[in-house]
Design goal:
The protein is of the alpha+beta class. 29% of the residues lie in helices and 15% in strands. The strands form four sheets. Strands 8-1-10-9 form a four-stranded mixed beta sheet. The longest helix has 27 residues. 36% of the residues are buried.
Length: 319
Amino acid sequence: MGQLTGPTDPAADAGWTARHRRKGFLTDTSICIGCKACEVACKEWNHNPADGDLELLGSSYDNTGSLGANTWRHVAFIEQGADAIANARESGRRLIDLGMPKMPGAAAEIAPPDTDQFRWLMSSDVCKHCTHAGCLDVCPTGSLFRTEFGTVVVQDDVCNGCGNCVPACPFGVIERRTDGTAAPKSARGAAPGEVGIAQKCTMCYDRLVDGGTPACAKTCPTESIKFGDHDDLVADARERVARLHAQGRTEARLYGANEHDGVGGTGSVFLLLDEPEVYGLPPDPRVGTADLPAMFKRSALAAAGMLAAAAVAFLGGRS
């Protein structure tokens, strides 16, 4: 286990000597059209089975609901009225006052566009490939490993299905597949020895090693999902936010780009148009292992106190 908190190069921290720039996703929800092409491409490339009978949920134009062992990309549909839109822009305006990026020469007072009476927020969620990944830290078999690209991947043939990784993820991304296999249901038989294997997005590691692009980013028709070098994507995202602010879209903000947060920043960065909670994302994600240094320090102090008390009791008894 390497560095537990703060900014770092996750691949170098994991011991990789080959120099690869960290790869990542930038998901720009302001241009997502909810086509779900990314979901389909992900399932096709990774041979992930379908979720249920493809019936729409009662709460949304959606049939998958959330990320899971079979759904490594999930497009959320969030309906908002005029009040919710106004609240989103006001909360974004407060973030701008705290120092969010602005376009050079932009006026201090930005007039927002006419508030819409209705809009859909559409966002393609995915594994965050955290700088400090809780799932990786608690895996007892080494099934989860950090790649040379800084991503986190599950090795099917090593996972023992213990499930430690599931509660360790602050985003609720990783999940155990009930039948444990990756082939389509029609093409596989019973595999009782593999039941419960953990599954999640690999950022198409098999494509990365051949110099390719993940299937979801390759198929996105609006380039809402961008793939590339992580640092370049974050820089592009900040410029995009600044442009949206200059247009009066004060609700735009970044998620996962802060390397000083509870997971050290994420490999998958999102441009959101409302608070993270609206998209089902935790506002302040924190990996449990980030508290280990403080826990070790408190444990050492407690042990020292107990030893001191025992010594005083022993010496007092002899006298």
